[in-house]
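Lab meeting minutes (informal)
Scribe: AK
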Amino acid sequence: QVQLVDSGGGLVQPGGSLRLSCTASGSISSTFVVDWYRQAPGKQREVVARLHSGGNTFYADAVKGRFTISKDNAKNVMYLQMNSLKPDDTAVYYCNLILPDARYWGQGTQVTVSS
């Protein structure tokens, strides 16, 4: 059993940075996929970043070069570092952890980019 808690969102000005955290309780298997999704009002939910347990990463075109996904294996915390934020990045961001036999979601954290 794994529980995820998303945190780190807030209000930031355009061009600023935020680091989102996804803290997992319990043990995470050696085989996993970590996704960060976002959903903005009036827009469809999209995957912005993905990390495979083998180390491969994926980024949506809209965030390439600005966002970085990572995992601290010792602390069981997944991160989404967001730099050069734009108003269009405003959304609720959700961590999703896919294990061989289950999928877990964080509760989401609001990111608002506005001047």
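Next up, CB showed the second protein from the same session:
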Amino acid sequence: QVQLVESGGGLVQPGGSLRLSCAASGFTTSRFTFSSYAMDWHRQAPGKERELVAGITSIGDSTNYAESVKGRFTISRDNAKNTVYLQMNSLKPEDTAVYYCRAFRRYTTYQYWGQGTQVTVSS
């Protein structure tokens, strides 16, 4: 059974930093391995639609970011550890949301979502 578990969320002051982790398990018994999946981070604030924050290819050779987080957030992955990360710096109150990680394969229906982790930026 494939599972994605986010961690590292919490309460932080404006201008502070957090590092989110998404640990994957169960891929050894699935059709494809963790390294076959692209990964991305999404977030959803109360009353707003879920939005893409950052994405990374299966081998980590390319990344993309939402305009609102460029220069502040960095996505990375360690396929040996089956883990993807989101380093968040210079946090703003508008970054407050539940953050979710997703594993997916292009041109297929294969995808998995984590349960989410709360990030709150407030004084």
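CB comment: The chain has a mean pLDDT of 95.
No objections, moving on.
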